[in-house]
């Protein structure tokens, strides 16, 4: 199949519906079909009479020959020693230590250990993969990939472990730590000019997952764009990377982004795009989440009161999400012999971190007359009395904020173990509060990855039997901090998400899942089931600083 670009000084015509190129010559008005697989075939096909033809360039499938001719010369030009032949140049390439995109220089000073790999294997002729080679194996690498100046860009970076926000700028130092998406716009060119070489060019940078490593971009004070690669496990090391960043270019930003994501999907083969997934029914209805009304103090009576209030106000919801506060949880017991340790003293400055102690609801959601009915009671009330179509409940991807509590009889089969998060440097620099966060100080009860499907399936099957239609799965990015001794952050995230996808597919046929606190590429690039993702951090009515970020993320 040919591309849709063909340049000629005296003619230009392309038939896009056929695997051939049709050229119309003004001198003889004859249409010549050029469909060839060798220089010899091409010369035989056209030697019958194209005269007065100017220099032209054709972009075609790599299986076909690529030729260029001078006026009156039907023989391919000889390639002189030391001189590059007149061949089609890739749309994105590294040349003379520059990243060149559609003949515009985007990055300068590209180091020699940064390598480029063609994107054609991913179905793209407009993109390239970047990687780097290092002298020693390590679990974390940072390398500059070139200097970024004299452009405009929009990026998405994680300002918290859980959430992304937008950032705009025009030089490398403006690129924030933990940047997971970068769209660069050239300053030269015009949207009004239909000629490609005169149009504004957009370049998408997508840092990827490569093996057990996850990549992000960041800038430094010298305006260098840096590539940061991390495994999250000191024992998971590497020194050579070839497909850590995908770069794609085009003249329409929306098309360019869409094509880039598709190329990455074909390359990674680990996720599906939204249009390939089933959207749950709740997306078509107005609904209510209990979090802002009650936080963790939600009760069955509170849910009923909220539904009645919304109906009385003329906005009856068709679904409800019973957020955090319905589960059976408890803090760790305090042991007297630890009272003198500095670690314990640090912990006592905080409230004990709650951990999951059972898969069933707590007493707030049990019917006083018949506790065995459990959470099914509020489900029946919501449907029969208030006409709701869907009822969802909340849980963390690790069960609860503090995970699953070890040593609890009901939870013994899951093999939970207390692990302490190892938060990446970029996240800590963006969110310094992680150093004293309750999860960092008190640890998290992580279910053994080998048992996590059993955990999800038993939890979800209990909920499905009670009439629950889906789950809001929160705290997802915490997995990236817990990969030590488990193969690293990417591997742990993959195992948990595969188990989660399988359980949701089995227990909630409407694909009833909402992802929350999940804005890392570890999760985004391994999701095959989840079609709905919460877009932003909380909206805090009394905190004006939060308003702009929230509105920009969800508008």
Automatic annotation (TrEMBL):
Catalyses: alpha-D-galactosyl-(1->3)-1D-myo-inositol + sucrose = raffinose + myo-inositol
Q: Which domain of life is it from?
A: Eukaryota
Q: Which UniProt keywords apply?
A: Carbohydrate metabolism
**A Pfam cross-reference name:** Raffinose_syn
Signal sequence, renumbered to the chain: none
* SUPFAM superfamilies in UniProt: (Trans)glycosidases
InterPro entries listed in its UniProt record: Aldolase_TIM (IPR013785), GH (IPR017853), Glycosyl_hydrolases_36 (IPR008811)
Top enzyme class, one word, equals transferase
Give the Gene Ontology MF terms in alphabetical order: galactinol-sucrose galactosyltransferase activity
The EC number on file is 2.4.1.82
List the Gene3D superfamilies. Aldolase class I
Q: Which family does it belong to?
A: Belongs to the glycosyl hydrolases 36 family.
What the protein does comes down to: Transglycosidase operating by a ping-pong reaction mechanism. Involved in the synthesis of raffinose, a major soluble carbohydrate in seeds, roots and tubers.
Question: Could you identify this protein by its name?
Answer: galactinol--sucrose galactosyltransferase
């Amino acid at each position: 199949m040919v591309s849709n670009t063909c340049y000629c000084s005296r003619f230009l015509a392309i038939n896009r519906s056929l695997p051939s190129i049709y050229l119309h010559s003004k001198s003889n008005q004859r249409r010549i079909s050029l469909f060839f697989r060798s220089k010899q075939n091409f010369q035989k096909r056209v030697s019958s009479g194209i005269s007065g033809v100017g220099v032209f360039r054709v972009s075609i499938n790599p299986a076909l020959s690529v030729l260029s001719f001078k006026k009156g010369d039907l023989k391919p030009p000889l390639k002189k020693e030391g001189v590059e032949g007149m061949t089609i140049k890739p749309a994105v390439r590294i040349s003379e230590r520059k990243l060149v995109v559609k003949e515009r220089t985007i990055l300068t000073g590209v180091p020699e250990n940064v390598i480029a790999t063609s994107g054609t294997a991913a179905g793209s002729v407009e993109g390239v993969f970047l990687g780097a080679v290092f002298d020693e194996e390590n679990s974390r690498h940072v390398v500059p990939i070139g200097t970024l100046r004299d452009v405009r860009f929009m990026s998405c970076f994680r300002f918290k472990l859980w959430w992304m926000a937008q950032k705009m700028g025009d030089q490398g130092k403006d690129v924030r730590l933990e940047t997971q998406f970068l769209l660069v716009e050239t300053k030269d060119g015009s949207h009004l000019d239909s000629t490609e070489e005169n149009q504004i060019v957009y370049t998408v940078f997508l840092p990827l997952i490569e093996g057990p490593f996850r990549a992000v971009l960041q800038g430094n004070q010298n305006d260098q764009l840096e590539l940061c690669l991390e495994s999250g496990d000191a024992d998971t090391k590497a020194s050579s990377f070839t497909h850590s960043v995908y770069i794609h270019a085009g003249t329409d930003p929306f098309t360019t982004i869409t094509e880039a994501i598709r190329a990455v999907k074909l390359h990674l083969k680990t996720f599906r795009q939204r249009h390939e997934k089933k959207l749950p029914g709740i997306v078509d209805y107005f609904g209510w989440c209990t979090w802002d009304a009650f936080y963790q103090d939600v009760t069955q009576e509170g849910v009923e009161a909220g539904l009645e209030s919304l109906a009385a106000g003329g906005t009856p919801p068709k679904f409800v999400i019973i957020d955090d506060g319905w589960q059976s949880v408890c803090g760790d017991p305090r042991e007297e012999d630890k009272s003198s340790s500095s670690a314990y003293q640090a912990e006592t400055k905080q409230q004990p971190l709650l951990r999951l102690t059972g898969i069933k609801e707590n007493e707030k959601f049990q019917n006083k007359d018949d506790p065995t009915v459990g959470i099914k009671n509020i489900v029946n009330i919501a449907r029969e009395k208030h006409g709701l179509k869907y009822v969802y409940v909340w849980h963390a991807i690790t069960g609860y904020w503090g995970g699953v509590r070890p040593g609890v009889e009901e939870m013994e089969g899951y093999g939970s173990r207390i692990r302490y998060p190892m938060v990446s440097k970029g996240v800590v620099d963006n969110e310094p509060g992680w150093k004293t966060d309750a999860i960092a100080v008190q640890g998290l009860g992580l279910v053994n990855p080998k048992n996590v499907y059993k955990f999800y399936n038993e939890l979800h099957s209990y909920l499905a039997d009670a009439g629950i239609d889906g789950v809001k799965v929160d705290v997802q990015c915490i997995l990236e901090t817990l990969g030590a001794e488990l193969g690293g952050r990417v591997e742990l995230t993959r195992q948990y998400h595969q188990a989660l996808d399988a359980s949701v597919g089995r227990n909630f046929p409407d694909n009833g899942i909402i992802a929350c606190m999940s804005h890392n590429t570890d999760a985004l690039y391994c999701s095959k089931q989840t079609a709905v993702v919460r877009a932003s951090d909380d909206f805090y009515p009394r905190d004006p600083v939060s308003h702009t970020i929230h509105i920009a993320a969800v508008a």
